[in-house]
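Try it yourself: sequence plus flavin mononucleotide, in.
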Amino acid sequence: KPESILIVYLSRTNNTKVVAEIIQRNVGGKLVALEKKNPYPENYQKIVAQVDRENEKGYLPPLKTNIKDLEKYDIVFIGFPTWDMQMPPPVKTFLKENDLRGKTVIPFNTNAGYGVGQGFDQLRELCSDSKILKGFSVEGGYEKKGVFLAIKGEREAVVEDQVIAWLEEIRLK
Ligand SMILES: Cc1cc2nc3c(=O)[nH]c(=O)nc-3n(C[C@H](O)[C@H](O)[C@H](O)COP(=O)(O)O)c2cc1C
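Structure, out:
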């Protein structure tokens, strides 16, 4: 039986969602968007302040998303934007609440140009009993400057080529 693939992602302005969809186009699998029980504020300054507070306290916001058939997946992609130069709190919740031991876990990320920060290191710590493959990180939007979805049109085609090269490197394609 072919290995079954799950692609879980968090996305606010859809850049990470587009990368998740590119991955799915190329390797298949089930796409799941992570949703928080109480959505974050729409306002950028407000979400930045809330995320800072949550990170300081180590608060894990409850999720609405619940994946019941997690055991059937062998490979789990985890996608998230860089927030506060780290992993967004809801992704921490997901990795704390869901046991990915024995699975192959593959991170991917979009950011405003400052990179993944601590995100992939945090994933490695939270998935210490998983096999972690090399992650993929790419520049996405820059909400602070009014750039929302940046991975579209010609830029999406460029990112798709980068994703395909990465998937070939980690031998998923
Ligand atoms: C609350 C918040 C904090 C952010 N912090 C950072 C950051 O520390 N470094 C960075 O490069 N980008 C940061 N960004 C920008 C996002 O990582 C970037 O726009 C990303 O592509 C958004 O992905 P999405 O469209 O899937 O939501 C932040 C965005 C938000 C909303």
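One thing you can check immediately is this: Residues 69 and 83 are 29 Å apart (CA to CA).
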